[in-house]
Amino acid sequence: MIYFDNVSKVYPDGTVALEGVTFSVKQGEFVSIVGHSGAGKTTLIKLLLGEGDCTSGSVSFDSVDIQKVKMKDMPNLRRRIGVIFQDFRLLSNKTAYENVAFAMEVAGKTDEEIASDVPHVLELVDLSKKMWNFPRQLSGGELQRVAIARAIVNHPDLIIADEPTGNLDPINTYEIVQILKKINDLGTTVILTTHNKGVVEALGKRVITMDHGRVTRDDSTGKYAL
Amino acid sequence: MLWITIKRIIKAGFVSFWRNGSVSLSAVFVMVIALFMIGSTLLLTAFLGTALRDLQDKIDINIYLSITAPENSIFDLKSRIEALPEVKAVTYISREQALETFRVRHENDHRIIQALDEVGTNPLTAVLTVKAKEPAQYEGIAKFLENKSSLAPDSLSIVSKVNYNDNKVAIERLSRIMAGVKKLGGIITVVLIGISILITFNTIRLAIFIARDEISVMRLVGGSNEYIRGPFVVEGMIYGLVSGLLTVILFYPITYWLKATTEGFYGGIDLLHYFVANFIQIFFIIMLSGIALGAVSSYLAVRKYLSTR
């Protein structure tokens, strides 16, 4: 489903972010990418989302070379990928409901679909009672759950979670990981980047370890090996 | 689908305007100032135009006719002058009318009225007042009147004096001032409107700069450029709409105050009258400039954040 073929990325200032990265991810897999800060995890994800191009090699998603996707077709590609970030990235002037609804609106869903799906998905992440709260009225764990609800509401083929537990306490971290696991159990491919040893070990799924822009290990039921 | 998208964009624009209260308020304030500048330049230019036309109307050439001139010769001369293409109107004031006007004008001055009574006969001459279409044309008309061959000999004999040369300096100066004012007014209008556009554009750019992170989030969630841009353009149009309304409302007390305080000279600068008389026109100009300014500024400001992939 996802294929990184000998990908290198050098920033204009000469920093090498990725060097000869090659790996693939199959449909329905749960892959954790671990590594120190600056190992290239975030760059990897940016390339997958089409935010910037790689210097050499290619990144493909469902046999489509992401670098060759035209600007006007980019939104369509992004609607097939749900993203979750460490800093949540919710729209601050929209309520939890509206944040989730926005993802459906841009995908061209009807008002009826939105009215039935949004409360349902917020219930899945246990936020029914705070549906009409603004982000500033929610805690870190709740914000991340809104972000997850937004990421899954359009039934994407792939969920990318970039350090989703970085700002959360252990209890919230556990809950978020359980939700991601549940999403994966239902068949959605998940790519998770993290620093958190406990998370990786508890998952017991495939782990790709990165260091200085290279893939140093790729274990099918890996452990956190840093 | 298109209709649903348009409906969502408009709604999002309104909601965003309302929820970003402080940003909207400051944008509206700045736009009121910009629109006020545009409005007052237009109002002043238009006022100057009418004031100059009034002034222009006061210029004329008087042809004083000899006391003995028979009326039919006078009418003959009048129609001959009226036939000139530069002439707008020729008014005939008979000796009796001239006397009447003179008496009315000096009714409080006993000595003049007494002197007039003592003369016994009417000492005033009949006058033909000539108005040109343009102030610059008086010179030509005066030359024609002075040129003896262009008038029939008998007509010439009845003209005792043409006062163009007395007024010449004043008329020439006025023509120059009017041309200057028109040119300067045009330049000032263009410059002020340019400044207003820049101020508005920068304010809206700042408002959208604040929302740049949100724009990137919208893109990540899969929003198309049109769908992201739409609500910002609608919000810009609302800024324009609200500022336009406030500006039009503001004009009433200000023109009223201006009229009251300037009553002293030249009959007062009566912008109020002009404002009220041309209200619909002014209302639409200000509202449309506001809405167009807001929409175009927003469109351009968001474009910056949507230009990459």
From TrEMBL, chain A:
GO terms for biological process: cell division. It comes from the Bacteria. The keyword Chaperone does not apply. It is found in: Cell membrane. Homodimer. Forms a membrane-associated complex with FtsX. Part of the ABC transporter FtsEX involved in cellular division. Belongs to the ABC transporter superfamily. This is Cell division ATP-binding protein FtsE.
UniProtKB/TrEMBL annotation, chain B:
GO terms for cellular component: cell division site; plasma membrane. Residues 187-304 form the ABC3 transporter permease C-terminal domain. Keywords: Cell cycle, Cell division, Cell membrane, Membrane, Transmembrane, Transmembrane helix. It is a multi-pass membrane protein. The keyword Membrane applies. Its main location: membrane. GO terms for biological process: cell division. The chain crosses the membrane at residues 21-48, 184-211, 232-254, 274-302. This is Cell division protein FtsX.
